[in-house]
Design brief:
The structure is a single chain. By secondary structure, the protein is α+β, with helices and mostly antiparallel strands. Helices cover 19% and strands 18% of the residues. It has helices at residues 47-53, 105-121, 128-136, 174-179, 218-222, 231-238, 290-294, and strands at residues 29-34, 37-42, 77-80, 87-88, 99-101, 162-164, 189-192, 199-202, 228-230, 248-253, 262-268, 271-276. The relative contact order is 0.10. It binds iron/sulfur cluster (2 copies) and FE2/S2 (inorganic) cluster. One iron/sulfur cluster binds next to helix 4 and helix 5. Residues 60-63, 71-76, 88, 90 line the site of FE2/S2 (inorganic) cluster (FES).
């Protein structure tokens, strides 16, 4: 072998930054009409997203940006010209040529009926969003009378962190989604029973401390009615001392580990009364673990 032959492979210099991900072809644009207004939108959009891009406030109960749509509440329905049934805006994708009506008499009646059925059977006293929809659609749940069947049952207080009051449950499935593959992957809760008897349950309806629950509280974070509530909030409400007008919200970073989750501390009278996380933060998408969600007592423990 000649001494001039290169026998060592010299690698090219290392890139100074990670290579860019392969580019994605932009989604095809389709023509649709919403409430008489023609527009072009990407075909990957849902009707709800298209409505929101126009500033149309479509009501939703079972939909949340950080969860997979399950289409169970039907309060978001819209009318499509030529379609036999109303369609859920939260999960139906736009299609070329769709003529969408978001506020027709049929849509308003359907939304009103959904809200009346919920309002006549469920305690919505801690669900301001649903209350505002009831007002907007001139729904009168009371017209079903005192005899209307209710999902009433005693509040479940079986642990120190949160309480479950299924008298307030609208069966939106959000807690099941958050406990399952959308966030926590613990699958501690599911829907049991059928028809009016359908309800959220642990496996075999065991008390929470005997279930697979790891107390991340992600189910509380997504519950739209207060059926799932911090014990701290439940106790303050019971004592008549819960006062949101006196509360402040402060964003900070969780001190427990290196992940760096954003916490929103809700404080009243200089005490932390509950902890949430913003949905638009990429680290958490609104979800936390037990330490971030419930570990705040050490801050105010003066002993
Ligand atoms: S606290 Fe977490 S693990 Fe327990 S039921 Fe809720 S989401 Fe599931
Ligand atoms: S407990 Fe809350 S989140 Fe779960 S289904 Fe009922 S209303 Fe929805
Ligand atoms: S928000 Fe669309 S079906 Fe519930």
């Amino acid at each position: 072998m000649s001494t001039e032959d290169p026998i060592w492979f010299t690698p090219p210099p290392r890139p100074s930054k990670p290579p860019a991900a392969p580019g994605k072809a932009p989604a095809k644009q389709v023509d649709i009409t919403i409430d008489g207004k023609a527009m072009k939108v990407p075909e990957t959009m849902t009707i709800l997203e298209a409505c929101r891009s126009l500033g149309i406030d479509t009501p939703t109960l079972c939909y949340l940006e950080n969860l997979t749509p399950v289409n169970v509440c039907r309060v978001c329905v819209v009318e499509l010209t030529g379609a036999r049934t109303l369609v859920p805006a939260c999960s139906r994708k736009v299609e070329a040529g769709m003529d969408i009506k978001t506020d027709s008499a049929r849509v308003r009646l359907s939304r009103k009926m959904v809200l009346e059925f919920l309002g006549s059977s469920v305690d919505l006293s801690t669900a301001p969003q649903v209350q505002s929809y009831i007002k907007r659609y001139d729904a009168h749940p009371e017209r079903y009378g005192e005899e209307a069947e209710k999902v009433h049952q005693p509040v479940k207080v079986d642990n120190d962190l949160y309480v479950r009051d299924y008298s307030k449950c609208i069966l939106c499935y959000k807690c099941v989604e958050a406990c399952g593959s959308d966030a926590q992957n613990t699958f501690a809760i599911a829907v049991a029973g059928r028809g009016f008897d359908a309800h959220i349950s642990t496996e075999n309806d065991v008390p929470l401390p005997e279930s697979a629950c790891v107390y991340c509280g992600n189910c509380i974070g997504v519950c739209p009615t207060g059926a799932l509530m911090f014990k701290s909030e439940h106790e303050l409400r019971k004592a008549g001392a819960w006062d949101e007008s006196k509360q402040k919200q402060t964003d900070t970073i969780c001190p427990y580990c290196g992940v760096g989750c954003t916490l929103t501390l809700h404080t009243q009278d200089n005490r932390i009364v509950k902890v949430t996380s913003p949905m638009d933060v990429s680290v958490t998408h609104g979800h936390l673990c037990i330490k971030g969600r419930f570990g705040f007592e050490f801050v105010q423990n003066r002993d």
